[in-house]
Amino acid sequence: MEASGTDPRPAAVPDGTEVLGTGSVPTVRGDRDRTLGILATLGAYLLWGLFPIYFLALAPTGPWEVVAWRILLSFVFCLVLLTVMRTWPRLWAIVKQPRLMAWTAVAGVLIYVNWQTYLVGTLTGHVIEASLGYFINPIVTVLLGVLVLRERISTTQWVAIGIAGIAVVVIVIAYGSVPWIALLLAASFGLYGLVKKRIGTDVDAVSGLTLESLWLLPVAAVELVVVGVTSGLTIGATGPVHTVLVLLAGVVTAVPLLMFAAGARRIPLTVVGLLQFLTPILQFLVGIAVLHEPMPFARWIGFGLVWVALLVLTVDSLRASRRGESTAAARN
């Protein structure tokens, strides 16, 4: 899954569909915006869920070369978007603020860890484990809210965290080793969301991805040099179709991110939180049905516990959301 800049867990309080006024025309506009928001967000999660198929189609390109091209081409694509959308002034305003630049650097490091871990997992036969990371992510987000932001959570949410912890122990026993790919993905994306929350709305999606990619350009250059000297670069060496697929890495990275940014601001975060499970579900299904990765009974138990924890967390969030709506209606 790619970074969104929005708290990835189901939220108790919606972030608010745009208030467009009163009367029949604004209501229609509000309904249309909500529909467009759901479709755009759903499309983003659908694309992220099918990412394993795209990245596996890049073979024989390895994970280090893929990430390097992804960084470089995402940066180029963002420069094009900034020009077409005429939003360079917005980017320059961010560049002039050292605090925001520092946060984008931290975000860049975290998204690099996430991208690299995900590619290593996907291209080495660990798609199911990667999906586990994104199943665990909402639990990690809640835990970070408690530990870092000092948020208070309900007893039900603590129960969900406890069930998820038991699930990880079961999966460790089932795998015979710690599922580092899943844990790194959950931790890096959870921390990335935390950084984005710190940044808030001061950095828009395109400017954010541009600056994060900019910070990572030296890393991409080093990776390409190392791969070129050792195993050799594959781009342009295995046919035109493969070359085009690699060159699309920037577009493939940016499009779902922009779809998410456009959709998430039009719908409540509760809806966003529910839709987000589409990504790991699709990745899980790709791992089982397409790649035929092994899934022993013990792993099913571990994954089942994770799903129970997510169900508990989701139901609690929906109840809290309804309580909030009821309170707001009573005040009005």
Could you walk me through the main structural features you see in this protein, from its secondary elements to its overall organization?
With 332 residues, this protein is mostly helical. The protein has one domain. Helices cover 77% and strands 0% of the residues. The chain contains 14 helices and no strands. Helix 3 packs across helix 11, helix 5 (98-123) packs across helix 9 and helix 6 (127-147) crosses helix 8 (180-199). The longest helix is centred in the C-terminal third of the chain and has 35 residues, at 297-331. The protein is globular, with a radius of gyration of 20 Å. The relative contact order is 0.22.
Reconstruct the topology from this structure.
Blueprint: H1 24-49, H2 51-56, H3 63-85, H4 88-95, H5 98-123, H6 127-147, H7 155-175, H8 180-199, H9 205-229, H10 240-247, H11 249-264, H12 269-275, H13 278-290, H14 297-331
Provide key terms for this protein.
332 residues; mainly alpha; disordered N terminus
Short description:
The chain has 14 helices and no strands. With about 325 residues, the chain is an all-alpha fold.
- Rg is 20 Å
The fraction of residues assigned to DSSP E strands is under 5%
Number of individual domains: 1
Question: What is the tally of beta strands?
Answer: 0
Q: Strand count, sense and closure of the main sheet? A: none
Cα end-to-end separation: 39 Å
Number of helices: 14
Q: Which of globular, elongated, flat, extended, rod-shaped describes the shape?
A: globular
Order of helices and strands: HHHHHHHHHHHHHH
Residues in helix, %: over 70%
Average pLDDT works out at 82
Which secondary-structure class do the elements indicate? mainly alpha
Low-confidence stretches: 3-25
Q: Note the quaternary state here.
A: single chain
